[in-house]
Design brief:
Number of strands of chain C: 2
Largest interface: A-C, 42 and 46 residues
Shape of chain B: globular
Distance between the termini of chain C: 52 Å
Radius of gyration of chain C: 19 Å
Strand order of the largest sheet of chain C: 1-2
Shape of chain C: globular
Largest sheet of chain B: 6 strands, mixed
Bound molecules: adenosine-5'-triphosphate, magnesium ion
Largest sheet of chain C: 2 strands, antiparallel
Radius of gyration of chain B: 19 Å
Helix content of chain C: over 70%
Number of helices of chain C: 11
Helix content of chain B: 40-55%
Number of strands of chain B: 10
Oligomer: heterotrimer
Distance between the termini of chain B: 41 Å
Chain lengths: ~300, ~260, ~290
Amino acid sequence: MKTKALILGLCACGIAIIPSLLGEGYLIQVLNLAILNAIVVLGLNFVTGFTGQINFGQAAFFGLGAYATGIATLAGAPWLAALFLSGLVAAIASLALGVPTLRLRSYYLAMTTIGFGEIVRLVLIHWEEVTGGTSGLRAIPPISAFGFRVESQMASYYVLVFALALAILFALRIRNSSFGRAMIATRDSEVAAELSGVNTIRVKVLALMIGAIYAGLAGCFFASTIHYISPDSFTNRQAVLLLTMLIIGGTGSIWGAVAGAIGLTMLPEAFRFLDQWYLVLYGSAVIAVISFAPGGLASAIPNVVTRLKAAR
Amino acid sequence: MLLQAKGIVKRFGGVSALDGVDLNVPQGIIQAVIGPNGSGKTTLINSLSGTYVPDEGSIQLNGAELVGARPHKIAQQGLARTFQNIRLFGTLSVLDNVKVAAQRHTPVTLLDVMLKTGAHKLAERETEERARAALDLVGLGTRALDRANALPYAQQRLLEIARAIAAEPLMLLLDEPAAGMTMTEALALLEIIQNLRKRIGITVLLVEHNVRLVMGISDRIAVLDFGRKIAEGTPSEIQKDPAVIAAYLGRRRAHA
Amino acid sequence: MGQLVINGLALGSIYAIVALGLLLIFNTVQIVNFAQGQLLMLGAFLGITGAVTHELPIGFAWIVTLVAMMALGLVFMAIVYFPLRGKPPFLIILTTVAMGIVLENLALIIWGPLPVSLPSPLTGRPLRFSGVVLSMHQIVIFSTTAFILLAQWLFLTRTRFGIMMQATSQDLQTARLVGIRVNRTIAVAFALGSALAGLGGLLVAPIFLAEPTMGGILGLKAFVVSVIGGFGSLPGAVIAGLSLGLIETFGARYISSDYRDAYAFVIMIIVLCVWPRGLFGEKSSERV
Ligand SMILES: Nc1ncnc2c1ncn2[C@@H]1O[C@H](COP(=O)(O)OP(=O)(O)OP(=O)(O)O)[C@@H](O)[C@H]1O
Ligand SMILES: [Mg+2]
């Protein structure tokens, strides 16, 4: 118990001093992006990780949340109202996508969620009067609530860390509740789950909706910390990246999802010199992980640890 | 009658796996359904539990019609089952497997969960009590925290039974619960089933193709062959029934 | 009007060919290849490398391309099929998606981001009759499609190997038991599936130009076509492919050309909501 508190304390200190090490600038902005991705991937983990339903629509939910906030705050709405709106828009969109399609099996579901992502992207591009078309929305106002305005990337960092902490806490609580058990039961055996009294369709829709709300709220934070959004950030390619973050981190593992998202958002910065080769290696790495460690790092690390211990 | 099934027909392509089966099960008995391989026993359980929707016929549990309802509704009406080919929630712990079925008695809202309210804690406690009680009934109490798919085969079958009874059903459908068990394990299982009836007064529908196994424990036996019920009665009546003997012997010859 | 029909059918024919390649693989091993579009893109670029860069005669370039695509299909099989047998579908889906990322970026490295054009094997003045123009390349498209349909039908129903392939698709275990060399059948499926994608690329490049990122949307449309056609049904895919070509062409003309690429998905979502297994899909229930 004491060691646990100590470790937590050390982590908190580490997290608190990071910004002063990086300084205001590009790196902290990337870190902020990484935290936002972690929230989005945590959301994806409900649907794909716990419930076992593939979802290529997560980037679109993220985008809907970002545009909801962008449009609302540029029109003068208070930030808190925009935050609420982002969650609501994503939730409604998830119902529209989920209710008709979650009865479908793997490949069909994959296709309909890709289709959904593609449709959202096309609407963002072509509904120019509202979305600004391909050039997107600029000068989106920063986070401001309860009399505080969060202007700098450094200040945003602390807000985002707090949001991520809440996202992790809620994910852990849901995982260890009747909802989490019903989700995993649905993934492991849909037939047995139904016959244990679980309404599996409702569980899938709920998982998609919780995931979408995570993405929508993260979208709001994205718009108001980066201040600029365009359809490019919410493509199907982005949806694929989010899924690979989850797979590499470990499908169904909350900490794996966070680690995967943060790691794979930061990594390209370290490997900039690779240029186009980076994505070639990235794709190959995903294939390798799926083939050799399908549980992702979350399962590979304990395996390696036990093996090392056994070897001693 | 607790369960009344009338004229159930289930076809796959051209073949009728069930061809007009009637079955009436009174409250509190152990009813066996036997029959050679492929005679339609599993299809009967699937039709009763809503896994398959029968093409014709009606099924009533305590007077409520089940045909056409989604399986989880049927489960909530009070029917629980196990599977011939085991279907556990492999990555969940043994205890969590049982909780999935037990938790419907203690619903909570998502908000309760996220805020960890008293209602949520209470619900979790009650779910856990129910689940542990069910595990104790089948003798798996000591393995509560193991992963379900780490259990040996016979215990996986017991876990399926624990999960089924944790829902506190009116009626329990067991599809070849002794399949793949050694004789000792099978006998222990029979004792557990008899115990269940004594302790919680549950009605059991037991599907087996091993005739000898069910003779000692069941109150009534129905015999299926090619999707039809060819006989029904007490174990001693069934033992003497010429149609039953012919069905089993005929198959055996055909197999040899 | 007549012109739109011709253009729509030409586009639809290409969708159908790519979808047929997808189905050849799916019917044999139940894997949906989400990199089919990137294979198509490779086909286009291999054709360009042969015919434009090395100035080979175009017919020869086509043959080289198709052979190379078959070899690539086998590599593909070695990477996505064998290590993944028995894994959950979403992991298989993601592996093929990752394959697509790898191929697309390799193409960017090799050929650069700029669009390139590939000449058609038939050049000459377009035919005109009563106001409708039929370009030489459209003639190529239609005759290739007709040839492929006929060849595939003959192959699957008239040759020993094709019949074995159909048997394999119905039941892999039993096929193995009755002595069909399943692995060889699977290899042929991947090789031909990849070649059909390449053929799609050779046919598309003269119309739309080729660029490394062209594969994504074309691959997706091939799935849409397969899904609407009932995943597994060859005639279904052909009808769905031609219909999609027509719908897109007419939709772009009469509704909105901005949303041209969205029609496919809207139709697919509607079809799946009404018939969860596709228009021509078989009804089958999972065994419990
Ligand atoms: N999903 C299905 N699709 C097609 N045919 C099926 C399906 N389920 C069962 N059948 C067929 O229905 C018939 C009855 O099968 P069922 O599984 O009910 O027999 P059973 O009595 O349980 O046999 P066993 O003792 O082997 O378990 C068999 O001929 C079987 O092949
Ligand atoms: Mg059976």
